[in-house]
Design goal:
Structural class: alpha/beta
Helix content: 55-70%
Distance between the termini: 9 Å
Number of strands: 5
Length: 197
Amino acid sequence: MFVSFEGADGSGKSTQAELLRAALAAEGREVVLTREPGGTELGERIRALLLDGPEMSSWAEAALFAASRAQHVEQVIRPALERGADVVCDRFVDSSLAYQGIGRGLGVDEVLELNLHATRGLLPDTTVLLLLDAETAAARAGESDRLERQGDDFRQSVDAAYRELAERFPDRIVTIDATGVPETIAREVRERLRDRS
């Protein structure tokens, strides 16, 4: 099983990814918990460029995310899936669709095509989208990176973008209200995943 978590910074993605990893591991399953951008040595270097580096064009940004993702799939995700492990990933393709495809105006189809080449067609079995209004997410996130410093308008457009993606890809993306306590949200995540398996 390949599950990704999506949502704005501050929505609880990392917390929920870890809680799912722990629950699956408690069932005796091998679980690989990873994140994007990152997950590999190359990916972590690209992450530093993307989150703390200089201003860059929207397509340069999209291409760097795709490059990190290509290495991540090749080195970590596909080998784990091939040996029968579960993969839980904090962000994946849908981040690029939301942030660059819609938020930056590059187009969902164009950014999806770039990423399908980079991942050789690999998409998560299920994407868990944690929905939290942009202001609450920003307050929870605290210190922000280069992308999150784009301001309230950009945050609002990314929030709207994620909701649009959930409508466009309902077979893959499940939405969960992220305003509750982490343990309650984690139970709902597990229930929704069980319903889909």
